[in-house]
Amino acid sequence: MTDETTNVTNGNGVEQQGKKSNTTLIVVIILVVLFIPMILGVFLCGGAALIGIAVPKYSDVSESAKMNACRANMRTLASQEVIYYAEHDCYTESLAELGMSGIVCPECSQSYRITVRGDDLTIECPCGHGSIENGRASWSN
Ligand SMILES: [Zn+2]
Questions:
Q1: How far is the CA of 59 from the centre of ligand 1 (A)?
Q2: How far apart are CA 84 and CA 100, in angstroms?
Q3: Within a 13 Å sphere around the CA of 96, how many CA atoms are in the beta-carbon half?
Q4: What is the distance in A from the centroid of ligand 1 to the CA of 109?
Q5: How far apart are the first and last CA of the chain?
Q6: Distance 11 CA to ligand 1 centre (A)
Q7: Is 126 helix (H, G, I), strand (E, B) or coil?
C-alpha cells in the first residue's frame, strides 16, 4: 500500500511535471505562433509602408530632376542657336552644327525637335517637358 501510494504520488508528480512542461511548451509555441507573425507582420507592414512612401517620393524627385535637366538642355540649345544666328544670320536644325550632337532628353533619351521657319525657332522636348519658341519657354520658372 505504502509503496503503491508513493508510486502513485511519484507517478502523479512526474505526470504533473510532465504536464507543466507540456503546458509551458504549448504556451511557448502559442506565443511563437501568434506573436512572431504579428511582430514580423508589423515589420513587414512597416517596411511596406516605408517602401510605399519612399519609392514614389524618390521617383518624383528623380522625375522632376530629369525634367529640370531636360529644360536646362533646351535653354542651352536656345543659347547655342543665338550664337549660331549671330555667326550665320540664320538658325540651324542641326545639333551637330550647334556643337551639341548627341544631346537627348534625360528622361526618354530622345533627341530634341528643332524647327526653323525663317527667323522663327522652336526647340521642343519629344516627351512633353515643354518647348522654347523664339527664346520664350513654355514653362514658368
Ligand atoms: Zn525632356
A1: 16
A2: 12
A3: 0
A4: 8
A5: 102
A6: 84
A7: coil
Task: Calculate how far, in angstroms, residue 112's C-alpha sits from the geometric centre of ligand 1.
Answer: 8
Residue 77: which residues within 8 A CB-CB, separation 6 or more? 95, 98, 100, 103, 112, 114, 123, 132
pTM for the model: 0.61
Residue 100 makes CB contacts below 8 A (sequence gap 6+) with 76, 77, 80
Domains of the chain by residue range: 2-137
Q: How far is the CA of 99 from the centre of ligand 1 (A)?
A: 19
Query: What does the alpha-carbon distance between residue 64 and residue 97 come to, in Å, rounded to a whole number?
Result: 29
Q: Are 67 and 128 in contact (CB under 8 A)?
A: no
Ligand 1 centroid–CA 40 distance in Å is 43
Distance from residue 17's CA to the centre of ligand 1 (Å) = 76
User: Mean pLDDT of successive 10-residue segments in the chain (141 residues)?
Assistant: 46 56 79 72 67 73 93 97 97 96 95 96 97 95 67
| Separation between Cα atoms, residue 111 and residue 115, nearest integer Å | 13
- Secondary structure of residue 66 in the 3-state scheme: helix
